[in-house]
Amino acid sequence: MSYPAGILTTMDTDAFWALIADARSRVPDPADAEAVATEAGALLATRPPEEIVAAQQVFWGLMGDSYRNPLWAAAYLINGGCSDDGFDYFRGWLVAQGREVFERAVRDPDSLADVPAVIAAAPDGDEMEGEDVLGIAWNAHIKATGEQLPPGASTVRYPDLDADWDFDFDDEVEMTRRLPRLAALYVD
């Protein structure tokens, strides 16, 4: 399935965040990324296919915007390590937490120390991951059309990582200096 050029602008960032907020308002625990992803996918599946495809691009734009080593360092602290895939899943979880939490964390990753789910997870080392969030548009498109997203439905541009944050994330002294509030929760 292909869509004419220009038609993929039916969902913008504000509409995407409204979809996430709506999904969060409909689940018993809005901190549950899997539940938010399922609900967002169901809501999105009721929209025209072009809008579903546009949602995929908006999502991957957010993934590109959040590809920052300070946030990766925070994910590393919170999850007790963080691979490339793990960072994607962490950022999926972050999207499921809603716009305010997402945007604040991208600006100041140490602000995640204020998120109730992060605070609650710290004593047991529970991971913050939302792999299902990565498939919201994919699953919605299949549900709505019976077909996979069209090839090239989205692209992502990852910026160069900040060289000032190119250090060993296992260095507790450096992590504590750079992310003091999160380190207070996660560094022994």
UniProtKB/TrEMBL annotation:
Residues 11-141 form the DUF4240 domain. It comes from the Bacteria. InterPro entries: DUF4240. This is Uncharacterized protein DUF4240.
